[in-house]
Amino acid sequence: MAKKSRSIPVNTMADDFGAGIAIEKISLDEATFNNLEEAKDPHREDRHSFFLLENGTVHIEIDFQKFIIKSPSVIYMHPDQVHRIIKIENITVSSWAINNENLNPDYLKLLEDIMPTKPLVLTNETFAIISEAASLCIKFTERKNDKLYHSLLKDSCNTLVALVVSQYLASVKPPRNFSRFELITKVFKEVLGRNYTQLKRPANYAEKLNISTPYLNECVKNTTGFSVSYHIQHRVILEAKRLLYHSDKSVKEIAAELGYDDCPYFSRLFTKVTGTTALAFRNKNLD
């Protein structure tokens, strides 16, 4: 394992042509990749990132899961997700990244809904459409003297996002009307994603949703099979795992960062959820 950082590194994509938007195409062989430490080391991206694998194969680890991605495929990476590239085999990748300010709000909601995603294999027809659109968007980046240059980049990048999100939605389930239980569970997960370091009790989330705690539990349990407390704890522990694995912060520091002043309580919670202690989890992943 590479030497741990004080905190999880965040990669900033090249941004020469518009604040908050980046679109590019790169080709890499194994020799060139071996010099790219920032890609091989665990990191996050600074925006919502999309990678269209046009040629070759990528071995990647995302939040403790390893994937072998073969072309033609696409993957969406949320800014929260920690990942590293393990190995490549002569790849060509078109990538685009966009921050919340420029991302269509409806698309942002859909991206939160489909999280966490896995690499998605594309049909040849769909790949051709997305690849052609990406190539066109890259040409737009060269038109810096256009009066509506930033708007052109923003709209074209959002089009690429929409194409990918559509594929993810089609792969998950057919469109249908959601029950009230499902809608409440969806909103709960959105609120949880924004507040898990501050709010730890089911009653906190029920208050945010203006419903009773028993009713929130009923909705979430009916929809997911697990209680509200289960989801709160597992979201906290996922971030704890990321910090234990990818940073050198102490358990006490991690507990404080995740909103726990009582480190022993946090340690007991970690053991309860994972079946191992925080230190044992960290030590298991040391060289």
Overall description:
With 287 residues, the chain is an alpha+beta fold. The chain folds into 2 domains: 15-172, Jelly Rolls, CATH 2.60.120; 180-284, Arc Repressor Mutant, subunit A, CATH 1.10.10.60. It has 12 helices and 8 strands. The chain has helices at residues 30-33, 37-40, 105-114, 124-140, 149-172, 180-195, 202-208, 213-224, 228-246, 251-257, 263-274, 278-284; strands spanning 10-11, 21-28, 44-45, 48-62, 65-70, 73-77, 83-98, 120-121. The strands form 2 sheets. Strands 2, 4, 5, 6, 7 and 8 form a 6-stranded antiparallel beta sheet that branches. It has a two-stranded parallel sheet with strand order 1-3. Strand 4 (48-62) and strand 5 form a beta hairpin. Helix 3 (105-114) runs parallel beside helix 5 (149-172), helix 6 packs across helix 8 (213-224) and helix 9 (228-246) crosses helix 12 (278-284). The protein starts with 9 loop residues before the first strand and ends with a helix.
SSE blueprint and pairings:
Layout lengths: L9 E2 L9 E8 L1 H4 L3 H4 L3 E2 L2 E15 L2 E6 L2 E5 L5 E16 L6 H10 L5 E2 L2 H17 L8 H24 L7 H16 L6 H7 L4 H12 L3 H19 L4 H7 L5 H12 L3 H7 L3
Parallel strand pairs: 1-3
Antiparallel strand pairs: 2-7, 4-5, 4-6, 4-7, 6-8
Helix pairs in contact: 3-5, 4-5, 6-8, 7-8, 9-11, 9-12
Instruction: Provide a count of the helices.
Output: 12
Number of domains: 2
What does the average pLDDT come to?
88
Tell me the name of the CATH homologous superfamily of the largest domain: Regulatory protein AraC
Write down the Rg: 20 Å
What is the CA-CA span between the terminal residues? 6 Å
Helix-strand pattern: EEHHEEEEEHEHHHHHHHHH
Structural class of the secondary structure composition?
alpha+beta
Strand % is 15-25%
Low-confidence sequence ranges: none
CATH fold category name of the largest domain: Jelly Rolls
**Beta strand count:** 8
Identify the CATH class of the largest domain: Mainly Beta
User: Outline, from the CA principal axes?
Assistant: globular
Helix share bin? 40-55%
The major β-sheet equals: 6 strands, antiparallel
Query: Can you name the CATH architecture of the largest domain?
Result: Sandwich
